[in-house]
Amino acid sequence: DTEESVLGTDRHQTTITNIRWGVNEAANIGLAPEQPARWHALSQIALIGCVRPDGTPYRVYPDIFVYARPVDPERGSFSIHSDGPPVLVAEVLSEGTYEADLDLENGKGFSYAHAGISEYLTIDYTRRLFPEGIRALRLVNAVYQPWLPDANGRWQSQRIDIAISLEDDGVAVYTLDGLRILREGEVEIERALARAERNRIREENASLRAEI
């Protein structure tokens, strides 16, 4: 990985943050407070155990990778050999890294398939490289095959209960029943709207009581 793939632009980092946030928020929906999350997304932490086509080790720092179980938040790296492969990896493309991210013969596409990572998304939020903005692959008989969007234009995972789409205002994470997870900058806006609605209802109720 190059320095650019780890740092990137602000929009690159925001996209990564919103995917990680959305995937992790979706993992807790419907659970009691004491229940562990059903899966966990990590970002730009070392994933050890991948190899290049020539068999040499390839330590990668995926933009997003997901394990379908809770993980220790203090971990600084994960290993294909001891932890198993993540169920999903997403790479947010940049000018300096897209060739390696998209290369299924010599790049990360080869390494992720060889490691047994079931689902692999590459995300071009600028839509400069491909108009659909997302290219996704699923592992079938140890070979990546195209993973197509559903009728809503979302890429629905078979391993965790989320779907990802690229919309005009950025990447969005959805639950399978169609709920879009809030993104960076939206939480406080939603809270403000909820407070305003509660105040409106209180005022309306007070007005009705006064009339009675």
Note down, in words, how this protein is organized:
By secondary structure, the protein is an alpha+beta fold. The chain has helices spanning 3-6, 10-26, 80-83, 98-102, 108-115, 187-211, and strands at 40-42, 46-51, 57-60, 64-67, 77-79, 88-92, 119-123, 134-140, 143-146, 155-156, 162-167, 170-175. 30% of the residues lie in helices and 26% in strands. A hairpin with a 5-residue loop joins strand 10 (155-156) and strand 11. It is elongated. The relative contact order is 0.14. The mean pLDDT is 90.
Short description, anyone?
Helices cover 30% and strands 26% of the residues.
Q: How much helical structure, as a percent, in the residues?
A: 25-40%
Strand-and-helix sequence, N→C?
HHEEEEEHEHHEEEEEEH
Percentage beta strand: 25-35%
| Quaternary organisation of the protein chains | single chain
Largest sheet: 6 strands, mixed
Q: What topology, given as strand order, has the largest sheet?
A: 1-4-6-7-8-9
For the CA atoms, what is the radius of gyration?
Answer: 20 Å
Dominant shape: elongated
> Unreliable segments (pLDDT under 50, ≥5 consecutive)?
none
Number of strands: 12
**Terminal residue distance:** 70 Å
Supply the number of helical segments.
6
Helix/strand class: alpha+beta
Report the mean per-residue pLDDT as an integer. Answer: 90
